[in-house]
Input
Amino acid sequence: MTDFEPLIIAFACNWCSYAASDVAGTSRSYYPANVRIVRVMCSGMVDPTYILRALAGGADGVLIAGCRPGDCHYISGNTKAEKMVERMKILLHRLGLENERLRLQWISSGEGGLFARTIEEMVDRLKELGPSPLKEGKGKGA
Amino acid sequence: MISEQLLLDITKCSRCGKCTAICPMFEKTKGWDTGVARGKLLVSWGLARGELEINDKLIEALYQCPTCMLCEQECTAGAKVTEIIREARALIVERGASVPFSHRGTFDTVARITLRDGLHRDWLDLIKGDFRENGETVYFPGSLPYLEPVLDFDLGAARIISAAVTIFNRAGIRPAIITQLADSGHDAFWSGQYQFFNALKEKNSRLLAGTKMIVTTCAEDYSILKSEYSLEAGVYHISQFVRDLIREGKLAFSEGAERVTFHDPCRLGRHTGEYDAPREVLKTFVDYREMARYGKDAVCCGVGAWMNCNKYSKQLRLDRVKEAAEAADTLITACSKCLSHFSCLMTEPEKVEDLPEIKIVDFTEFVARNLKDT
Output
């Protein structure tokens, strides 16, 4: 599919990655418009159900962006997120979805470039993978 | 819509109060009458007649119940309490309110994903043993492979599924494991989402057409497949399957000195009436003890269909585990939900006051572990 444009839902931590996306904007770095950013107070508050509902609702990929290890504003939220993402990758695999559709990336608040690069990489990879198998019958999902 | 028949059933209630004395949840909540069967019946009546509006209190009244059927069994008027509550929930769903699931509804979303076709489900590598992907004798693990990654403790899905396959193999059967099967729909049904349940039922019935025998390891799957599906195949819970194999002399066990007790899952016991099979199996090879409340009087693990997990259900769970610890060293249960609820309690010993030391083991896994090598 050549005209396929993937849709990414990004859960970005208020204290780092969301600021990084801002930096990417103010420094006029280019990144694809395929991403919809949801600001969360900590990557640790992202619940399995957010990921599943995003995918069931038609997203092709989900990005969870949080502070680098040791930098969490709430001490250990990002390690919690890391464990959760590991488990969710197993779940996606068992459910029959490519687990690369879920990505966890540590982005600190200055790294606007890294934010832009992460989105670019994800869009490229998702274009190779094609649309999410859950995308058909949109609206039937949760 | 609550049927005329069920509405008549509500009028049978003489408000005698037996349910208030027996409901394990009410004992913990110590709340208003809406926390117990006789109040819930009146709420259902009001809802069905359009006299009550849907609000948070009403939703709480109807969903704060594991539908364990203890009150229905003891009801002096013989009202079909659980069925009425379920129909009332369906009315709530029909009118657009959302179900107050625990775990933020993750398991509901997982079930919705299992309904989708065209996904290559990949978990057969978890299984140790000899199985096929199609056949007349089916092992139905339900959503077990999908439950485990959501929970942050080890539920042992791989061990339970492999154990079931081992038991089949000992009996000389290569069971069929169909990964395309959707969730059994138990939670969809009991949360009142009938439309969703029917979609799951239709998909599973299509995939199970032409099979002769279906064995489940989860009591909830068993109850729903047996009572709400109309399958040609015979549906068995693993405890019944193992009992029959023992009677036929196909399984041998190495005897253990462990003191073991069995928690009756409400779906296996009161809902489908199977109390004897797991006991008959366990008594053949271990020192079997009974808890203070067992069989028909067994108390629920606290949560039904992934709803209403809260401080009250946690107290119920703790009570049950303490009761088990008085009777034995190992608590066996035959339902993946009971297993996950008890295991969840045991994962945080530092957070629970006077948590007894007891092992929680799934029935299938326990049976397979004690099989004698031949």
About this structure: The two ends of chain B are 56 Å apart (CA to CA).
